[in-house]
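check this:
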Amino acid sequence: MNWRHAALYWLAFAVLAVAYWLSGPTERFPEGPRSRPETEGTAWTDRVQSVVVESTRGQVRANRQAQEWRTEGGRVVTALVLALLEAVAEQEQREAISADPSDSELRAFGLSEPAVRLIFEFGSGEPPLRIQLGARNPAGTAVYARTDRSAAVFLWGMQPAYYAELLQEQDTRGTPSASGP
């Protein structure tokens, strides 16, 4: 490389550095806490008083106690329950893949004998929301889901199933609660 090429590279570097400096810092993240817009799909999560996860591994119940969520065994599982509620609320915007599935379709989706059942109970006398999670899709990236409020079958991301599994593991394995074991 001769001196002219080196000078051109340095000149290009200087021009880009000045342009970057003049543009000022860019804000990567908005200031303040992240907030999600309140929509019809997410408002129900604030009314949930109990979460029940049922699978072949057993049943786990977490109850809201003030600002915490605790299992019946006394384990603090606030972060897991909040993550589960958020994951389910995010899935509500999905389109149905089968509006009125036949019995054979339900078997194919793993919903005739669901792998996981989620029950969200409300304290206001409102009927609980029951969700069935079935088999994974062929790619293994999502699960088939169905609620008791609709006959339709949806393809949901893995997050609700993942958090339900973690909640069950936490209840059996657990970590000490804030007030001790």
User: Anything to note?
Assistant: Residues 115 and 158 are 13 Å apart (CA to CA). The chain has five helices and eight strands.
